[in-house]
């Protein structure tokens, strides 16, 4: 079988190819668990809405509590070892759910513990993973590597939910989680046998282990400061789109079939963006791709709350908005990660990743609650309109920020 050129190029690096293979399998497995956990709670344990809300909140809690510590570890412990232990730990935890279901002692308390601990390991893996990639490829290959990893995520976003639905239908939700557990073992095996060595950590100055070193490093670079501000505020504004589906159903009167097609356009857009990025990185700077991706993404999203309801054309426009919006976001996201990896010294990379991970994901729950509360008073459309306008202003501001002056 002959791979397309944009895939074949990335396979030239053996270590990266193994990492990419493991993460592709793991990304599909994660979609299975995301759906399975919700269905186990609803249909196997018959939990009440309060218990379900606790379960969902436990997924976000590790980001707030554990990100800083994960960053310190990622800068002072072998990142390869952290990835291995995170994969092995997640596999072991997920195996507990089908085992408990088979034994008849599956309880909501067990599910709470599994979700919380898997969330902790997810944070550890995410922080170490982005810091680890620059040790596998050259600086010039970072953009290409990130585009390929984004491609796997996009494929998983498109096909993962369908695969999850089939497995849950055949095996029931608790036993479908076996596949995600096995996917983490595959990821661990790829790292263990495919990546045999890791670059020796650079000598670190005394006191660099301080958890605040990541914040200091962000403050030291004007471009990183601007990027941190943008990431935080954009995430806060973007969290209002938790109201997106209610808006489509209640105000635009989109049918269930059309809703499914519109949502699927997001995955197709992310896939398209990842493929385009693999070609664009050879011609344009990462900073240019980041700026254009951010501006197009925020600009296109502003069209959502401006659409009229009950028009046949509305569904077509929504499909196009979702496609272009997610394609541009995929380009922005991979370019932002590449810029961060190239700007930050290796000894601070884990902590800087942790800080930005905390800013982006920690602020989102607050934005969701605030958007929901305001929507009760003024309606969903005004909330989406205001948040989209602010996001577009932020995307425009980024063009005049120190980020634009970075020559990468």
Outline the structure in words:
It is a single chain. The chain has 408 residues and is mostly helical. The protein is globular, with a radius of gyration of 21 Å. Helix 9 (222-238) packs across helix 15 (364-378) and helix 12 (286-301) packs antiparallel against helix 16. It folds into two domains: 5-192, MFS general substrate transporter like domains (Growth Hormone, Chain: A), CATH 1.20.1250.20; 213-405, Growth Hormone, Chain: A (Up-down Bundle), CATH 1.20.1250. The protein has helices at 5-8, 14-44, 49-76, 79-103, 108-132, 142-171, 173-194, 213-220, 222-238, 244-250, 256-280, 286-301, 312-343, 349-362, 364-378, 380-399.
Summarize the structure.
The chain has 408 residues and is mostly helical. It has helices at 5-8, 14-44, 49-76, 79-103, 108-132, 142-171, 173-194, 213-220, 222-238, 244-250, 256-280, 286-301, 312-343, 349-362, 364-378, 380-399.
State the main characteristics.
transmembrane, Growth Hormone, Chain: A, mainly alpha, 2 domains, Transmembrane secretion effector, transmembrane helix, MFS, 16 helices, cell membrane, about 400 residues
Largest sheet: none
Report helical residue fraction. over 70%
Strand proportion, as a percent range, falls in: under 5%
Total DSSP E strands:
0
Transmembrane segments: 20-45, 52-70, 82-103, 110-132, 175-195, 226-249, 255-277, 313-332, 380-400
Subcellular location: Cell membrane
GO cellular component, one term: plasma membrane
Keywords: Cell membrane, Membrane, Transmembrane, Transmembrane helix
